[in-house]
Amino acid sequence: RSGGTGGSVGTMASESEAQRALQYEQTLMYGRYTQDLGTFAKDEAARLRLQQGHGEGDSPRPRHPSELLEYTQGRCAPCRVCALQCQRFLISKVGEDWVFLILLGLVMALVSWAMDFAIATCLQAQKWMYGGLDTNVFLQYLAWVTYPTVLITFSAGFTQILAPQAVGSGIPEMKTILRGVVLKEYLTFKTFVAKVIGLTCALGSGMPLGKEGPFVHIASMCAALLSRFLSLFGGIYENEARNIEMLAAACAVGVGCCFAAPIGGVLFSIEVTSTFFAVRNYWRGFFAATFSAFIFRVLAVWNKDEETITALFKTRFRLDFPFDLQELPAFAVIGIASGFGGALFVYLNRKIVQFMRRQKTINRFLMKKRLLFPALVTLLISTLTFPPGFGQFMAGQLTQKDTLVTLFDNQTWTKQGLNDEFEYLGILEAWRHPRSSVFVTLIVFILMKFWMSALATTIPVPCGAFMPVFVIGAAFGRLVGESMAAWFPDGIHTNSNTYRIVPGGYAVVGAAALSGAVTHTVSTSVIVFELTGQISHILPVMIAVILANAVAQSLQPSLYDSIIRIKKLPYLPELGWGHHEKYNVRVEDIMVRDIRYVTLNCKYRDLQHVLQSTRMKSLPLVESAESMILLGSIERAQVGALLNHQLSPQRRLQALRQKALAEDGHRLSEASICFQINTEASSGAPTRINPRKPLKPALKRVPSGPVETAPAGTTDHTGIALKSLFCANTTTEPIEAQGMAYRKAKHVRISIVEEMDLGDRMTPAEILDWEEQQLDQLVDFSSAKIDPAPFQLVEHTSLHKTHTIFSLLGLDHAYVTSIGRLVGMVSLKELRKAIEGSLTAKGVKVRPPLASFRDSTASATEPDTTALRQLWDRHQHHHMPREASPGSDDGDELP
Amino acid sequence: RSGGTGGSVGTMASESEAQRALQYEQTLMYGRYTQDLGTFAKDEAARLRLQQGHGEGDSPRPRHPSELLEYTQGRCAPCRVCALQCQRFLISKVGEDWVFLILLGLVMALVSWAMDFAIATCLQAQKWMYGGLDTNVFLQYLAWVTYPTVLITFSAGFTQILAPQAVGSGIPEMKTILRGVVLKEYLTFKTFVAKVIGLTCALGSGMPLGKEGPFVHIASMCAALLSRFLSLFGGIYENEARNIEMLAAACAVGVGCCFAAPIGGVLFSIEVTSTFFAVRNYWRGFFAATFSAFIFRVLAVWNKDEETITALFKTRFRLDFPFDLQELPAFAVIGIASGFGGALFVYLNRKIVQFMRRQKTINRFLMKKRLLFPALVTLLISTLTFPPGFGQFMAGQLTQKDTLVTLFDNQTWTKQGLNDEFEYLGILEAWRHPRSSVFVTLIVFILMKFWMSALATTIPVPCGAFMPVFVIGAAFGRLVGESMAAWFPDGIHTNSNTYRIVPGGYAVVGAAALSGAVTHTVSTSVIVFELTGQISHILPVMIAVILANAVAQSLQPSLYDSIIRIKKLPYLPELGWGHHEKYNVRVEDIMVRDIRYVTLNCKYRDLQHVLQSTRMKSLPLVESAESMILLGSIERAQVGALLNHQLSPQRRLQALRQKALAEDGHRLSEASICFQINTEASSGAPTRINPRKPLKPALKRVPSGPVETAPAGTTDHTGIALKSLFCANTTTEPIEAQGMAYRKAKHVRISIVEEMDLGDRMTPAEILDWEEQQLDQLVDFSSAKIDPAPFQLVEHTSLHKTHTIFSLLGLDHAYVTSIGRLVGMVSLKELRKAIEGSLTAKGVKVRPPLASFRDSTASATEPDTTALRQLWDRHQHHHMPREASPGSDDGDELP
């Protein structure tokens, strides 16, 4: 990191998430994540070295070198230099952002259009097969059922094999990535291919699945790949902050070109993925999404599907009198009911996932037969929608698109006036049943589709839930609209003109309300305007969407937040609607006071103690245990490296050699040259990986033998103190073990080289002695990399402000200081607990409502002053006996 | 402030702004601002005391006590307690946010509707007068001209007298307020009244002025007042963070109920006022704006103006084929031309203001006759629009609303087909001129209205520029559309169907593009959809708006940013479109290294030196000049207070008394009691104001005489060193003088009391001696209020990141540290200079484009390590001779 302002902005997941991620590996569905690109690179490097040493890998999943290369930036260096000179003038003239955005929009429009085309072809094929076999109902059923089952199974299998990260919606992961967490292999080309093909097959099956969420993910991958491709032409594309901005724009493009809704796309992507949005990124999203939507629709015109560019689901409601004021209560009812429905959908979806996980026997069986679950679900759903069977009561033969077209239809399906029976034409035919009314069909459709959609979205294929929910909402709106039309056949308005009720308008309102409730967004209203091409129902839509949001948000998290929790991704919950009591909780109420720290004048033994006693990813560096003045933050890995270096057999042997040098002068001259090289390579920057160069010569001399037994054998009599430390960590922290592998590998490598040259002349007892002696030395921090300005809070910062700052800066933890003195720490975990209120019993004293008002003037400055006075006093009388301050119980360890 | 996390989030204006604000006091138009509520309260308290003491005020503008009371929260305490108990249950049940938002929406809808009604009546009256006098053209002219002149003059005078803050748009000020700066008297009831009445009169005059910007301001004032009103029922409304959130929602309400455009209102207000937007506030804006727009339109229905709720400027373009693909180039042309036009408008507007200011003679004359300028401008504009005169060539008789209705008209004004002349009906008549074509009328209209609008918006009345620009854009679009219609009379499409070109659609596109270009927003597109009730032209509108933005943003700042600069409000410029080079400038390139600081173990003399040598609002507090470890930040006022207290005559006399006590034991017993009281009151918390209690008894004993001459006479022989310090400051920093007034006042008060009791027994020489002696004492910081966690950056932070953090957290300055050591400071000023590139000559070394890429691994940790090593070395060898570090040139002053 070039400069960690205010702590780790490009943040890592905290300890607890890492642990959860482990649990998560055993779970049924969805992709995996790891914490940090750096850690990943280190692990990989270590593993690769070990593998190269062993000749074969012992890790369960063999990795290809290409996988690793995706994370290195150094390839094609000569090609890059050449291209640079050619393109420099062009690039400097053209500017990059808009070129990038146009390319992104173009590619995504092509992808979207091609996928739509493929999906339409798939659906057409199913219809054709079903229609062609109309002589035999059983054959028809077989065709109707087999076709989607095969497609879904293929999709599930394909994504499982190629890239399990492609499973699911993608919006929750994008939200996490935009918060600054790096998810492993989430934006690679392999995932892109898996997602595109998997999604096409999944949607081609006709299951109630959506393409919106996956499109956000696809667009993000597209942006990441494009950015990597364009980085061949210049260094600008390699900036992390810029990449995040481009990813935000890509999310907008994803929604925009999925629905041909640029404005709605931008807003929806902002609402769904961001907590704080930079307005300066706004135009990027608009620009790219507009261009993408434009190309997407122009392709339809060029393909002669449309005469000109219009909306995707164009409606033709009357403009002069779209709705009556007295219809507004009905719209409000739709909104409130959709709110409950949306919350129920999220609840149902979560319960299905949890049920599948909790049932151990089912789970074990399904884990073995990964493709069985998708196949079974598809079989069940397609059986129920079989048109000659139960499907006749729920318009089963209609595809999702046809369903929407019919639901948004301009006509009234129930009796118009008094005596004319409505003629169902074309695809509207599907909604009519000879022995039941359209109301029954609609109700059955809504009920069946509801649980089907909730179930189908848990299938491990690339799929979203937005469209299914949108359709259900439209059907519910239509139901209310048709009821209103039946109730008031001549309209409510009793003036001269007769304005009949337009049930299609209700369908639009219902669609926006239910999808808004499930996703907790209000921008679904904009999406429906752009989707239908009419904005006349703006007020009913807005009212219904806001009411639906109000109800749903007070009952359940959004679908995406729910998935984030299920997947155990690192997140920070929102403060919620009525969060005023959050102003009264302060950092001092939730902070961890008992933190381990490193002092500037500590000994290596202290480092060892600290590493043993805490699992924190980064440790605060303070001036001294007395002053507790915070100087910076040092990563755990760095502390380990320092300790590692101090106790390295290399140094031990060097010491030994110096002693030996007194005995015989020139015997080791040759070996010492070899030493110099190795020392240089590994001591300068202990954690920076110099990919292969120092490794190969070292390993060439050791063809076999010691390496196999290295972790067990060699370290047995080198670095005993160190080993006990690492072993302790290995047992308690399984995730850490992986990270240690690299250090061990290095350790082993060095010791091998030296054993070759010198042999080990020290007995274990001598080594222990030497190590004890080394541990008592003062730590030399000069080679460690220290974050010089970690983010600091003060004790009186309110929870609300802390939440704001954490989500603004994407922090993972912050130190609490008081006039430079470290007094505590707040991490994402504490914050989350405090917001969710689970910590109340364990220590958060929620202040009475007016507490902050009462003591706003009196007590605010009190502790600051006291702390300052102590500091000042101390300065007057130098090195007073240290006072027992409350936040430093671990001072006993550090003399 | 309850806890300043990471520095002063609720920030104050920096030094330079304060100075500019002074310049600004002399300028012609717009309101004033000051930096900080706290400072304001102090100033006011000091002034009020002085006034009470003097019996009459010597400030030019007498203040009423009620003005001050608005800033105290303590009134009505018994009433509040009573109300609390009654309402507690209700409030806890109901929740507050939505109640507040509903109330806000309701009030604003009523205000908007009532104002529209009043404006329509005013315009009707003018039309009626003009129509009634059609016998005599001269009388007609008189009526046509006098009416708006009187209204504008009244508006200007009224706002000038009641609240000069009400002048202008209000959006620039709201942007500043939402950034965290407190503008004086900007959200008071008086300003509210002035703005509402002033705006009604201004718009009623028929000048080309808008109501959007002022409505944002009105809604914000409404929210602030409502929040203050509701705070009578509970303490929740008094939270600062919450108030900012509510202000953001209020801005959305302002736009929303002005245009009945809730979505556009929310987006426009976000784009115009925020740099980073919290998505959690999103629903607030939507909720309030929707409710407000709903009520606003329902009022129209109830008033029988409309049959049902529809758009404000409803269009009736055909839905099936809104535009041809081949028309898109024409829309793009509109966009690009609008971009240039928008930039020109902003430029023209700024130049007019600057011209008026620069011309000293004009300026002086106009300053004397404040109402002359508005009257002259109105006279000029209304003369030119006089319908029988020049107005006949520019549809002068149409009001702004009628103009828009006609421009968005569905029909084509030029020849339809080959032989039928279009019949102009109703208000369309105005566009026809017997001797010229409609093109000439349109061109004249655009040209005349362009400079008229730019000129009219500089009149010091409450007015916005959005609507005038919107109308000009619509006219321009209409012009292009009519040209296209004349060029392709049968439409471009050569298929079977003939789809004629719809010039009204072009008008919509032009309106969105020009207003988008002037305000640098893309959400004007959403506003036109909501305003016209049709979204069919979404793609042309989006394309034109984005192109217009691209052009305008590369040429000029937005109108609001331009006004911010003219008014010298504290601001941070945007990074702009192609800001990639900003990644390569780092904090170390722009930071001020030569900063003054306060050490923990410094003497009072050092404080004096620091105060004399710097103008910084807050000073860093470091551990010692050797370590430079940053402990916190102390405000300048606090340092002054410390010094003040140390040199106070009170302490001097106490010292004197102790000496005297040795001489005679009991003579001063009575006086000493009086001293005890006074010492308690003023030493405990030097800057906290205990409103009246300690003041009154002190002043009662001094009926007259010494007080009048106090500032000149009494301090003459008390606190000589202090005085020289303050005098030095007074001459160099005129704004500081006001702030010093309070301190002086206190000083004077105390000295008076003591002189009464003791007389002055010391000669000036003795005093000087005593003061020199006092200055050599070590500073006791225990009574000072210190911000324990000011925001810190590191040297390698990129300009881009710094900008993000400054705008995210609303910072005013940040310290640059390196492993706890203070090495520099960055304030808004440096950042602004670096972004605007004006500092390049003076020291910013802009790195070569790929520099950050090249040295990202090698050099990043180098200086940190060096700094750390120094620190470590120093700790090893205690108190080494101090090294000459580059960032501490002022160390010579501080031993």
UniProtKB/TrEMBL annotation, chains A, B:
The keyword Signal does not apply. Pfam families: Voltage_CLC. One of its GO terms (cellular component) is axon. It is found in: Basolateral cell membrane; Cell projection, Axon; Cell projection, Dendritic spine membrane. InterPro entries: CBS_dom_sf, Cl-channel-2, Cl-channel_core, Cl_channel_volt-gated, ClC. Keywords: CBS domain, Cell membrane, Cell projection, Chloride, Chloride channel, Ion channel, Ion transport, Membrane, Phosphoprotein, Postsynaptic cell membrane, Repeat, Synapse, Transmembrane, Transmembrane helix, Transport, Voltage-gated channel. Its main location: membrane. Residues 690-699 have a biased composition (Basic residues). The keyword Hydrolase does not apply. SUPFAM superfamilies: CBS-domain pair, Clc chloride channel. Homodimer. Interacts with auxiliary subunit HEPACAM. Belongs to the chloride channel (TC 2.A.49) family. ClC-2/CLCN2 subfamily. This is Chloride channel protein 2. It comes from Bucorvus abyssinicus (Northern ground-hornbill). The gene is Clcn2.
